[in-house]
Amino acid sequence: MDKHSRILIVGHDDIIERSLRSYLGDSGYTDVQSSSLIGLDPAIQASVYAYFQKNRPEYIFFGSTRSGGIEANRTRGAEFLYHNTESQNNIFHAALKFEAKKILYFASSCVYPRDGAQPMGEDRLLTGPLEKTSEPYAVAKIAGIKLCESFRAQYRFNAVAAVPATVYGPGSDTQAESGHVIGVLIKKFADAVREGKDEVVVWGTGKPLREFLYVDDFAEAGRFLMERYDGGDMVNIGAGSEVSIRELAELIAGVTGFKGRVTFDPSKPDGTMRKLLNSERITRLGWKAKVPLEEGIRKTYEWVMKG
Question: Is the N-terminal amide bond of 119 cis, ω within 30° of 0?
Answer without folding.
Answer: yes
